[in-house]
């Protein structure tokens, strides 16, 4: 077997293509400090409700659930949100979102103070789990926004 040329490798590498599915606008409560774990600080952010909207779909986020965060000493935030929503057709959907948020310390400090930060300067990605979706893997990107002024998030995308 010979070495594979770089252009052959590029031709063999699949390209990830995404399609917008929906956006979530989630109302959150004040963060609850839940202690130092030794490798990071735990925070719990209550989910107070919200809305889901996309092309041909609409729903309401229940006022239950939370975003459980571990903030590492370097500022990397591990997120794990668990909540549910009801579609306008009555279907109930449970979702678990696992991901990370990271950026320059000064910007992360501003977010912690509730200030608005340009979302292009913060890396914030998650993988929501809805159950068995076959070959589709949902990917989400998010935007840190001010607690009192919620802008719509970028939304959920799925590979196609």
Using brief descriptors, characterize the structure shown.
160 residues; mainly beta; Porin; single chain; ten-stranded antiparallel beta sheet
Describe this structure in words.
- The chain is mainly β.
- The chain has one domain (16-159): Porin (Beta Barrel), CATH 2.40.160.
- It is built from 2 helices and 10 strands.
- It has helices at 6-12, 105-112; strands at residues 18-28, 32-36, 41-54, 57-61, 66-71, 77-87, 92-102, 123-129, 138-141, 155-159.
- The longest helix has 8 residues, at 105-112.
Sheet having the most strands: 10 strands, antiparallel
Q: Roughly how many Å apart are the termini?
A: 33 Å
Spans of at least 5 consecutive residues with low confidence: 145-154, 156-160
Q: Label the CATH architecture.
A: Beta Barrel
Derived structural class: mainly beta
> At the third CATH level, what is the topology name?
Porin
User: How many structural domains can be distinguished in the coordinates?
Assistant: 1
How many H/I helices?
Answer: 2
Principal-axes geometry comes out as globular
What is the CATH class? Mainly Beta
What share of residues is helical? Answer: under 10%
Mean pLDDT rating: 80
According to DSSP, the number of beta strands is 10
Portion in strands: over 45%
Rg, alpha carbons:
18 Å
Order of helices and strands: HEEEEEEEHEEE
Describe the protein's topology.
Layout: H1 6-12, E1 18-28, E2 32-36, E3 41-54, E4 57-61, E5 66-71, E6 77-87, E7 92-102, H2 105-112, E8 123-129, E9 138-141, E10 155-159
Antiparallel strand pairs: 1-3, 1-10, 2-3, 3-4, 3-5, 4-6, 5-6, 6-7, 7-8, 8-9, 9-10
